[in-house]
Design goal:
Length: 707
């Protein structure tokens, strides 16, 4: 039981601490003791609001154990000034064990039961570690999951999912100043003025490492809707995937002189019927740095639409394969609009298309414009711009054999025919799926993960059941090959004029000598700074992957030595120095380690491990490359490990022990019956009277599938 972990001494210590400001108050929906004073887990409050009321205003913490919390009142939780509310506790932690909190394992839910708001904000207050769901307010209907009016909260590690409101289905800000970190906005809806995930009116906010996926607005701003001249939003390392809006700005809509800065953000597969599949901005200033736009669609400006007043700065962005639907020749597959001033530097615009398949990169007018060191299909007037294939990393194409959507996670699983992907290598890329309607562009989805034959993406690939398999697909990368003409051909953008860009979308330092031609830099059009064009600065890092675990022979016999062969592959661009491989087999006290020599980019090395096992099922072997960290800054540790499960048996008819009974085995047993040398293999299948016609017939039967 949760209370059992609490000693009398600890309970007394907790009770003493509660007498002072900044005390900890405990909440646990599972408390059935009949006593609720919030001083121990055994006597915890059973609703969050009681904990908040006990703590503030004036300061204190409310620790909430895993469970589902609701209320007959709206909101379910009204935050208080200077009070921090933390979810994710198991319900047994002591006062000094805050770091044991785990919101992912101990899911803590605020449930509006589709009848009320979830949370209201307060000044200098914190909410951290909650899933806020099914919140649909019936009064003051903006800000369904959480409403902040003239307040300054911090919102961290929260998931806003399946909430709805007239605007700000997930979270609404009005006259507020908020910090929003490490949050997810999934499948929320704005039923009126917009902002399915987030609505901000006359507010400022810093939004860091947040995901907006599968949100919808009946008007503008599927992911985010911002309004008002005093609204200024800063987005860092955020992702906008498969959001939808019926008007403008599927990912983000900025209006009423509102301004925003986006740094290191990804816009993938957002769809709109109006302007700006990724971002639509009116009047206010817009700064976009180190951002990727791919697979977005709209009527005008598949990736970005900026209209009328305000300045636009774009530096080191990659816009690939965005679509526009407009029948007009001026529509901007990747970029469209008009602004007071426009400065675009070190950007790649490629494969922007109209719905008839014709190229259309950008249609933009600005009173003052500066275009320099960009790679734009079809060419672009300005300084040191180029028109050359960027040589993105190669992708994949084929046929989907099955697809399924899980509303609980807001993720889809796509199974492909003849899949042979290296597990863990497709995350962050674009999956484009053939549309349901032949007149629509392909649908884009951000890849979350993959194994050999399945791909997991954000949002609903089935389109509410309208899309079924089989269906064509493409996987497209936006990162560059090491032979790209965009390497080292940008300019230094560290000055504030260009947005003070010194790192790339991954946080790597700009100016890496990707061509390895020394400090003088490449020939023109580069300026000698070694900045790459696009969102990613290509750095030649090694990336060790375990690409295969095989057995030799394929079907090992009991108590006879066989070999586990592990292939280590350097899938990175840089050469890897000597490293280590660990191989752990069922029954090992500790994993065995083996040296791996230095590997050039693309090179592989096979490590053999002898083994002997008795007869049995479900033996497990796990191999982990670079297990001691000898390869620095590995960019993709997810592909370092591979596990194989196998059985040890006596395959009597598998003479060559390759795992199959086939014509080779038939020939071997015939040779043995004729007295020919078969290199020590055992061909006496029935263990009676030596090798004869009976053994031959048994192997033939096995090869034919006959018992």
């Amino acid at each position: 039981m949760k209370a059992a972990a609490w000693t009398v001494c600890l309970a007394a210590a907790m009770a003493v601490s509660l007498s002072a400001s900044g005390a900890i108050w405990l909440v646990d929906a599972d408390n059935v003791s009949g006593v609720e004073d919030g001083t121990t887990w055994a006597t915890a409050f059973t609703n969050i609001q009681s904990g908040v009321d006990a703590a503030g205003p004036g300061g204190g913490q409310v620790w909430v154990a895993a469970g589902t919390y609701t209320s007959a009142a709206s909101p379910v939780v009204a935050m208080a000034t200077d009070v921090a509310i933390y979810g994710g506790f198991a319900g047994s932690e002591s006062a000094d064990q805050f770091d044991l909190r785990d919101p992912q394992a101990n899911v803590t839910i605020i449930d509006g039961e589709n009848a009320r708001r979830g949370v209201t904000g307060a000044n200098n207050a914190i909410i951290d570690g909650f899933t806020i769901t099914h919140c649909v307010p019936t009064t003051t209907s903006w800000g369904g999951g959480m409403q902040c009016e003239n307040t300054s909260p911090t919102v961290s590690n929260c998931t806003f999912q399946a909430n709805a409101g007239s605007s700000g289905g997930g979270l609404g800000l009005s006259g507020s100043s908020a910090v929003i970190r490490d949050c997810r906005f999934l499948d929320n809806e704005a039923t009126d003025s917009g902002g399915g995930g987030l609505y901000a009116a006359n507010s400022t906010a810093t939004i860091v490492r947040c995901l907006f996926a599968g949100n919808e607005a009946d008007d503008n701003g599927g992911g985010v809707n911002a309004q008002g001249a005093s609204t200024d939003l800063t987005f860092s390392d955020c992702t906008f995937a498969s959001n939808e809006a019926w008007q403008d700005g599927a990912g983000v809509y900025m209006a009423g002189d509102s301004s925003a800065t986006f740094s290191g953000c990804r816009f993938v597969g957002n769809e709109i019927s109006g302007h700006g599949g990724g971002i639509s901005s009116e009047d206010g200033d817009l700064t976009i740095l180190n951002c990727v736009f791919t697979g977005n669609t709209s009527l005008y400006g598949g990736a970005i639409s900026k209209w009328t007043d305000g300045d636009l700065i774009m530096t080191n962005c990659t816009l690939r394969r965005n679509w526009c639907h407009a029948g007009s020749a001026f529509s901007g597959g990747n970029l469209y609009g008009k602004s007071t001033a426009f400065r675009m530097t070190n950007c790649i615009l490629w494969e922007g298309l109209k719905d008839d398949g014709t190229p259309n990169e950008m249609d933009f007018y600005a009173s003052t414009r500066s275009y320099s060191y960009n790679d734009v299909a079809g060419g672009l007037a300005g300084t040191a711009n180029i028109d050359a294939d960027p040589l993105f990393l190669p992708g994949y194409s084929g046929t989907i054999s099955a697809l399924a959507y899980d509303a609980a996670t807001c993720q889809s699983t796509v199974t492909v025919e003849s899949g042979a992907f290296l597990p863990g290598t497709l995350a962050g890329q674009l999956l484009q799926v053939a549309p349901v309607d032949q007149y629509d562009p392909p649908c884009g989805y951000l890849i979350v993960a993959n194994d050999a034959a399945t791909i997991t993406v954000w949002a609903d690939v089935t389109r509410g059941g309208a899309a079924t398999a089989p269906r064509a697909y493409e996987v497209l990368n936006w990162r560059l090959q090491d032979t790209s003409p965009c390497l080292d051909t940008g300019r230094d953008a560290s000055e504030s004029t260009y947005g003070a860009v010194t790192t790339d979308i991954d946080g790597d330092a700009r100016g890496y000598d990707g061509l390895n031609d020394g400090p003088t830099g490449p020939p023109e059009p580069g300026d000698g700074s070694d900045y790459d064009m696009g969102a990613d600065e290509l750095i030649r890092l090694p990336d060790l992957a375990v690409s295969a675990v095989t057995l030799l022979p394929a079907a090992p016999l009991p108590d006879e030595e066989f070999t586990i062969q592990v292939t280590v592959l350097n899938v990175g661009l840089g050469n890897a120095g000597p490293s280590v491989l660990s191989i752990e087999l069922t029954g090992d006290a500790t994993p065995l380690t083996y040296p791996v020599p230095a590997l050039d980019a693309g090179a592989s090395y096979v490590v053999p491990r002898p083994a002997t096992l008795p007869k049995g099922e479900d033996y497990s072997v796990t191999a982990i490359a670079d297990s001691e960290g000898d390869v620095p800054a590995d960019p993709n540790p997810a592909n370092n490990a591979l596990t194989r499960v196998f059985d040890v048996s006596v395959p009597a008819c598998d003479i060559d022990r390759d795992g199959d009974v086939d014509a080779v085995d038939v020939q071997l047993v015939i040779n043995a019956a004729l007295g020919l040398d078969i290199e020590g293999r055992d061909a006496d299948v029935n263990d009676l009277d030596g090798v004869n016609a009976v053994d031959v017939q048994m192997v033939i039967n096995a090869a034919l599938g006959i018992l």
